[in-house]
């Protein structure tokens, strides 16, 4: 065959397989591709297996999970978040509804709660991102920004190395640090004060929260695309400003916040 169909130029082609079929896909399949003049994958990634409540999944014993039922119960983003966070390449992973619900609740508590508190009308009176020139960075803010710089670098490296679970854990760590900062500043008390220092501190806290949410949403796009799009759209972030090239602090200034309807991430009451 002399046409160009066999000379495909695919810069990043990964072959993702289960660990129990590595020999065929790492030895025989590449040989077949070479014999056909087809390009080889750049990397073969062998992942672990999923167990269910600590037991091997088996159709014969009925120890299985209905993916459509799980999607209906937890939604696409919720299930993606759990699977990518818990599904590691190093070891087998265990599936249970309690673990799914706990994972989604943590996302709601750390990401959803920061969004709802920092954009609430009672705290963010103008419903907009504060003007970048009106904030003052002190020690507490410097700690959050240092964490952001370290975390973004770690997360990008994790994604590049297919360690999605580790990358997601680092996103959650960044959100934890930011939530602690936000709670320590107590912006809900600053809104009751009239002095200029309190007003500046409030604007600074809201700006820090908004920027961390923007950066986190960009990094969550491969994991929870619908949720990430909702948050980025709320902050009026254009499609061209949602890549790893836009992770630097200070990208927003004065944007109106378009509050999405309903609760951003509904909590699931876990026992």
Name some characteristics of this structure.
271 residues, mainly alpha, three-stranded mixed sheet, two-stranded parallel sheet, 8 helices, 52% helix, 7% strand, elongated
SSE diagram, text form:
Layout: E1 14-18, H1 22-35, E2 43-47, E3 50-52, E4 55-56, H2 67-86, E5 93-95, H3 97-119, H4 139-160, H5 164-185, H6 187-190, H7 196-220, H8 225-234
Parallel strand pairs: 1-2, 3-5
Antiparallel strand pairs: 3-4
Helix pairs in contact: 2-3, 2-5, 3-5, 3-7, 4-5, 4-7, 5-7, 7-8
User: Strand fraction band?
Assistant: 5-15%
Give the H and E element order: EHEEEHEHHHHHH
Describe the main β-sheet briefly. Answer: 3 strands, mixed
Structural class: mainly alpha
Number of strands: 5
Mean pLDDT across the residues is 92
Strand order of the largest sheet: 4-3-5
- Low-pLDDT windows of residues: 1-7
Q: Tell me, what's the shape?
A: elongated
Radius of gyration: 22 Å
Contiguous helical run count: 8
Summarize the amount of helix as a percent range: 40-55%
User: Could you give the distance between the termini?
Assistant: 62 Å
Offer a quick outline of the entry:
With about 270 residues, the protein is mainly alpha-helical.
Description:
This protein has 271 residues and is mainly α. It has helices spanning 22-35, 67-86, 97-119, 139-160, 164-185, 187-190, 196-220, 225-234, and strands at 14-18, 43-47, 50-52, 55-56, 93-95. The protein has a 3-stranded mixed sheet. A two-stranded parallel sheet has the order 1-2. A hairpin with a 2-residue loop joins strand 3 (50-52) and strand 4. Helix 2 (67-86) crosses helix 3 (97-119) and helix 4 (139-160) runs antiparallel to helix 5. The protein is elongated and about 75 Å long.
């Amino acid at each position: 065959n002399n046409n160009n169909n066999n000379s495909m130029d695919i810069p990043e082609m990964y072959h993702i397989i289960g660990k129990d079929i590595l020999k065929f896909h790492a030895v025989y399949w590449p040989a077949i591709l070479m014999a056909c003049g087809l390009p080889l994958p750049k990397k073969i990634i062998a992942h672990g297996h999923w167990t269910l409540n600590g037991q091997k999944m088996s159709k014969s014993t009925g120890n299985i999970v209905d993916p459509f039922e799980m999607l209906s119960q937890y939604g696409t983003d919720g299930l993606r978040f759990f699977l990518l966070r818990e599904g590691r390449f190093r070891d087998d992973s265990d599936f249970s509804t309690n673990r799914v619900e706990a994972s989604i609740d943590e996302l709601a508590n750390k990401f959803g709660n920061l969004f709802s508190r920092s954009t609430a009308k009672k705290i963010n009176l103008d419903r907009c991102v504060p003007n970048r020139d009106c904030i003052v960075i002190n020690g507490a803010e410097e700690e959050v920004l240092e964490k952001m710089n370290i975390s973004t670098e770690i997360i990008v490296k994790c994604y590049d190395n297919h360690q999605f679970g580790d990358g997601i854990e680092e996103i959650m760590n960044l959100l934890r640090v930011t939530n602690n900062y936000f709670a320590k500043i107590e912006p809900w008390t600053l809104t009751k004060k009239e002095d200029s220092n309190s007003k500046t501190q409030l604007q600074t806290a809201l700006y820090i929260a908004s920027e961390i949410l923007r950066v986190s949403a960009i990094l969550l796009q491969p994991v929870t695309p619908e949720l990430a799009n909702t948050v980025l759209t709320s902050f009026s972030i254009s499609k061209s400003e949602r890549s790893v090239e836009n992770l630097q602090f200070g990208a927003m200034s004065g944007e109106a916040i378009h509050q999405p309807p309903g609760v951003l991430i509904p909590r699931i009451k876990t026992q």
